[in-house]
Amino acid sequence: MRKSQDVVPRQYVSDEKGLGATLSQKPQNTKKTPTQGTLAVLDVVDGARLWYVWGTLAWHDIRQRYRRSKIGPFWLTISMSVMIGAFGGLYAGLFKTDVAQYLPHVAVGFVVWGFVSGLTNDGCNAFIESQGSIKQVRLPLSVYVYRVVWRNLIIFCHNALIIVVVLLVFAIRPGWIALLAVPAIAVLCLNGVWAGLLLGLLSARFRDVPQIVASALQVVFFLTPIIWQPELLPDRAMVLRFNPFFYALELVRAPLLGAMPPRLSWLVVLAATGAGTAIALAMYARYRRRIAYWI
Questions:
Q1: Does residue 172 fall inside a structural domain?
Q2: Share of residues in the chain with pLDDT > 70 (%)
Q3: Domain assignment of residue 265, yes or no
Q4: Which region, left, alpha or beta, applies to residue 35 given φ > 0 means left and ψ of -120 to 50 means alpha?
């Protein structure tokens, strides 16, 4: 009789190094699948790299809004100038304040508030207004948020001419300290990105969110020292202490008027930026894939 063969099959052979190599099993793919958080961060980063896409889209939005207009986006500047002049002349008399001191305060406040409120309101519709592109073109969804931020920044640059004119008329020379407004505006843009991701996502799911945000901003407008000065309410400092829009406003307005922004304003705004970014990325990572179905 033939000798019985080994019960255990030969599954291993020695290589040149004397190590065992499995022959009966196929090599497994050891590449890890990225988490939703990683994909969300990559979406934001890849969207930022496509600056030529969202830059072109933002400029196209402005051109379409003022198509065949001789003045174009400067209509916004003209309307805001009229409003600033009306508020400045009226409330300076009501508050018994010198116009030369009050009008620059109102002018810078109105322009910066227009930028902040524009980022917030338009951020709610970042995905809704781009639903056609989202359903037809494969792009990072953050592109449409950057589009909103860049569009509002262009409008802000147009309206900044009001600040220049007012400073020249009232002979206000802020000096080199005015350059501190540049990083402050950059921080506001970062806040606009996370606000667009969060509010745009919520608005795509719940269509009442844009109306709620717009109504809330109207209330915040009167609670923020835009048409009134903080010195007029010394006994109600709580209105300012718990108002993040006040600190954001002071970051830009103070250096443009020749004053150093308070350190507390930087701390509050940077803390709000970090907390808002964390919350927005968490929500974006979880519900990003559903946006195309919601809009």
A1: yes
A2: 87
A3: yes
A4: beta
Q: What is the mean pLDDT of the chain?
A: 85
The pLDDT tens digits for 3-53 are: 444 444 444 444 444 444 444 455 555 567 888 888 899 999 999 999 999
Report the 3 state secondary structure along 22-53: ECCCCCCCCCCCCCHHHHHHHHHHHHHHCHHH
Question: What is the total count of domains within the chain?
Answer: 1
Per-residue pLDDT, averaged over 226-243, amounts to 76
**Burial class of residue 23 (count of CB atoms within 10 Å of its CB; 0-12, 13-18, 19+):** exposed
Taking CA 186 as the corner, what is the angle to CA 242 and CA 239, rounded to the nearest 5 degrees? 10
Helix (H, G, I), strand (E, B) or coil at 160: helix
State the Cα–Cα distance between residues 198 and 195, nearest whole angstrom: 5
**Tens digits of per-residue pLDDT, 189-208?**
999 999 999 999 999 999 99
Q: CA-to-CA distance for 270 and 267, rounded, in angstroms?
A: 5
12-14 and 20-22: which strand pairing?
A: antiparallel
Six token digits for residue 145? 């948020």
In a domain, 18, yes or no: no
Do 22 and 116 meet the contact criterion of CB atoms below 8 Å apart?
no
| Residue 239 domain flag | yes
pTM of the entire predicted model: 0.84
Distances (CA, A) of 240 to 99, 222, 224, 250: 23, 11, 7, 11
Q: Within 10 A of 106 (CB to CB), how many other CB atoms are there? A: 24
- 250 is written with which tokens? 């002071």
